[in-house]
Write a structure and sequence with these properties.
The complex is a heterodimer. Chain A is of the alpha+beta class. Chain A contains eight helices and four strands; from the N terminus they run αααααβααβββα. The chains are: A alpha+beta, B alpha/beta. At the A-B interface, helix 3, helix 5 and helix 6 of A face helix 1, strand 9, strand 13 and helix 17 of B. Bound molecules: flavin mononucleotide and FE2/S2 (inorganic) cluster.
């Protein structure tokens, strides 16, 4: 195991302590622990995964198995803006495919990737629950509705401008 | 007078929070004007909504409110003269959207303050539960539910009393669990979210009655992680219920004790399936288990468990209060009570609709939903999401009833109702759902894992114009195999969107495969844009708009599209002011 653990960047695992203290002993809490871990780091750092495995008494593979099963968990850090593109049914019927394609082309990344400047991460999600505003994207928790490909790109242009990246 | 702002998820997405701060900023210090909050009234097409109340009486409903309207609203409330807000008052026609509904599960949504147990109690809340534990035996509760005819609203439509009875009789000693399925996986359904966000105590009360009936001392709600506001409201409500001795030890002085907790899901559609949900609750990958044993025998932590959907529970207090017979009086022979639908898609008035079973799809879509946007023609309606099917316009007089809907090849489902018009490609729709299920298949069984993948590949090549003769037959064969060979409902129902579109829209499949043509003009790979030389005045606008520089031509002369470069984005068609671009 030590072999695999070489070359892993070191995260500050201290901040994880309170989470583990609260949940590690409760059976069936692995998902909750991973959710809290992601709240702390924004993603699941590899060394944190090993650390959690040790503390809950599971094989690292088991923890990774759970982490990769659920779409909520990320194994790489995200950009400053998390763009969630709704791929729900109502959004599909109202043209989300074109919006997704335009955003993807504008940023030059696919779903699950982050731009090189670390500004934007793109993620496809199933129904954001704002179907009546379809098609919808959500950026850092704020919903933008009734989009067209052009409107979506201009929202991103504004953000880039704000960040002085243009 | 009170100003009440609709702050459900869709209200907030439409800008409700900005309106709240705009109104709050206008209030003077010490001014005796109260601002309240409420959940989702279900009229999503009119959000943001602001209501003005006098006591419990609704005086005015203001719709599509913007920040700029804050002053007019505050002035109206200060003076009692509403003429200044007439321009944003709901129209008589839009009021019909609610008037034509019968609300049981949604009875409190958008009316009460979801963050206040006092408000819930002022509307008779927890009365049914008190009646239950003080005057009824568990057998009597189950009997009442049996009389009501309530069936599971999570999709399968299994009689609720039967499940409760099995869980009750599974053992008399030891632990049992009552679980609420709030995973709401159908990507186009949002009524469970609305109930939890807008009436969390209604869910708690329904669950408490169920827990008492089956003898469970622990209740858990498994909520989709994408529903943060629902989780927040439910957490608050649980705290309040504990403080009022409605949860915990010796509830309301009886010897009934019950605890309640929340578990957030982590984004996996299959976790809506009850055995996968249990796996996930136990902290593992959410892969379905073989049944039997059924959860009623061995569920969460190996103990007997009963799982019901949010809407199922939301009906329960009403049934106990009004009697099972009142519920059974609504509906058809084998589908009783009401059902909530999330009406979306190309509909004019999208939102939450609760109607008695037995109404027709047409009544819901046209009388309540106002028909199709932009004067287009309805083509089909999709029920049941990835497990359901597309019902064509010719069958819109089908009544909403478990059996009648099943006969069309679709299902009642959990309540997603997505309306499609002539511009929606049905092959594209089938592909959309297969993309979804292929992605969400947990991978446990071969038929589901590989079968959905192969179906997805075939559909992808058809919409790309690479379909082959015999593809439809191949799809049908795969559908049968995946249905037969899958362990859980995900795989067993995944073929439904494909089968129903083949059944009713075979012509669209044939057009894609044989003529390389998309009748709905949606599959971009199959479209050809061309300039009608007779109509083109040579304004050059399209050439300037074209991102691929595929359009050439001299000024004031007809232009020309180079098909080899065209990326079929449709910009030229949209920009042309002379209707000179045609799509085929
Ligand atoms: C793939 C799949 C997804 C499901 N998703 C949900 C869901 O999101 N919500 C739900 O209540 N039931 C869902 N169900 C149905 C549940 O398995 C179960 O039948 C239901 O929660 C039982 O509650 P009810 O009897 O009150 O309907 C799903 C089933 C399958 C096979
Ligand atoms: S389908 Fe996009 S918000 Fe529901």
């Amino acid at each position: 195991m030590n072999e695999c653990r070489k070359n892993i960047p070191q995260s500050n695992l201290e901040s994880l302590e309170s989470v583990l203290a609260e949940y590690a002993a409760i059976p069936g809490s692995l998902i909750t622990i991973l959710q809290k871990t992601q709240e702390i780091y924004g993603y699941l750092p590899k060394d944190a995964v090993y650390h959690i495995a040790e503390r809950v008494g599971a094989a690292p593979a088991e923890v990774m198995g759970v982490a990769t099963f659920y779409s909520q968990f990320r194994l790489v850090p995200i950009g400053r803006y998390l763009i969630q593109i709704c791929r729900g049914t109502a959004c599909h019927v109202n043209g989300s495919e074109r919006v997704a394609a335009a955003v993807s082309e504008y940023l030059g990344i696919k779903s699950g990737e982050t731009t090189d400047d670390g500004l934007f991460t793109l993620e496809n999600v199933a129904c954001l629950g704002c179907c009546s505003l379809a098609p919808v994207i959500m950026i850092n928790g704020e919903a933008y509705g009734n989009l067209t490909p052009e409107k979506a790109v201009s929202v991103l242009e504004n953000l880039r401008e704000k960040e002085g990246a243009l | 007078m009170r100003i009440v702002i609709g702050e459900g998820s869709c209200g907030i997405a439409a800008g409700a929070s900005k309106i709240r701060s705009a109104i709050e900023n206008l209030l003077c210090k010490g001014e005796n004007l109260s601002i309240g909050t409420t959940g989702c009234i279900g009229m999503c097409f009119l959000e943001p909504i602001v209501d003005i109340y006098e006591g419990k009486k609704l005086l005015k409903r203001l719709v599509k409110v913007g920040e700029k309207d804050a002053k007019a609203i505050v002035d109206a409330v200060r003076t009692g003269d509403f003429s200044g807000v007439d321009y944003i008052t709901i129209s008589a026609e839009d009021e019909q959207f609610l008037e034509k509904q019968t609300r049981i599960a949604l009875r409190h949504c958008g009316i009460i303050d979801p963050t206040s147990i006092e408000d819930y109690c002022a509307f008779g809340g927890y009365g049914a539960f008190e009646k239950t534990i003080k005057t009824m035996t568990p057998e009597e509760v189950i009997e009442e539910i049996k009389i009501s005819g309530l069936a599971g609203r999570g999709g399968a439509g299994f009689p609720t009393w039967f499940k409760w009875n099995a869980a009750k009789n599974s053992r008399t000693e030891g632990k049992k669990y009552l679980i609420c399925n709030a995973d709401e996986g159908d990507p186009g359904a949002f009524m469970d979210r609305a109930v939890i966000e807008s009436d969390p105590h209604g869910l708690i009360e329904g669950m408490l009655i169920g827990a008492y009936a089956i003898g469970a001392a622990e209740m858990t709600v498994y909520v989709r992680a994408e529903y943060p506001l629902a989780i927040k409201h439910l957490e608050e409500a649980i705290k309040q219920a504990k403080n009022h001795n409605l949860l915990g030890e010796n509830i309301l002085g009886t010897d009934f004790s019950c605890e309640m907790s929340i578990k957030a899901g982590a984004g996996a559609f299959v976790c809506g399936e009850e055995t996968a949900l249990i796996e996930s609750l136990e902290g593992r990958r959410g892969m379905p288990r073989l049944k039997p044993p059924f959860p009623a025998q061995s569920g969460y932590m190996g103990e007997p468990s009963n799982i019901n959907n949010v809407e199922t529970f939301a009906n329960v207090p009403w049934i106990i209060e009004k009697g099972g017979a009142a519920f059974a009086a609504m509906g058809t022979e084998n589908s009783k009570g009401t059902k909530v639908f999330a009406l979306t898609g190309k509909i004019k008035k999208g939102g939450l609709v609760e109607i008695p079973m037995g109404k027709t799809l047409r009544e819901v879509i046209f009388e309540i939903g106002g028909g199709i946007r932009e004067g287009k023609k309805i083509k089909a309606v999709q029920l049941g999401g990835p497990s359901g099917g597309c019902i064509p316009a010719e069958l819109l007089d089908t009544v909403i009833d478990y059996n009648a809907l099943a006969q069309t090849g679709a299902i009642m489902g959990s309540g997603g109702m997505v309306v499609m018009d002539e511009s929606t490609c049905m092959v594209g729709m089938a592909k959309f759902f297969l993309d979804f299920t292929a992605n969400e298949s947990c991978g446990k069984c071969v038929h589901c894992r590989i079968g959905t993948k192969r179906m997805q590949e075939i559909l992808t090549r058809i919409v790309k114009g690479e379909g082959r003769k015999g593809d439809v037959e191949l799809l049908e064969e795969l559908c049968e195999a995946v249905k037969e060979g899958s362990l859980c409902g995900l795989g067993q129902t995944a073929p439904n969107p494909v089968l129903t579109t083949i059944r009713y829209f075979r012509n669209e499949y044939d057009a894609h495969i044989n003529e390389k043509r998309c009748p709905a003009k949606e599959c971009s790979a199959l479209l050809t844009y061309s300039v009608d030389a007779k109509k083109c005045v040579g304004c050059t606008l399209c050439a300037r708009k074209c991102p691929a520089k595929a359009i050439s031509g001299e000024i004031k002369k007809p232009h020309f599209i180079n098909q080899a470069i065209c990326i079929k984005c449709g910009q030229c068609e949209k920009s042309c002011r002379f209707g000179a671009i045609s799509v085929r």
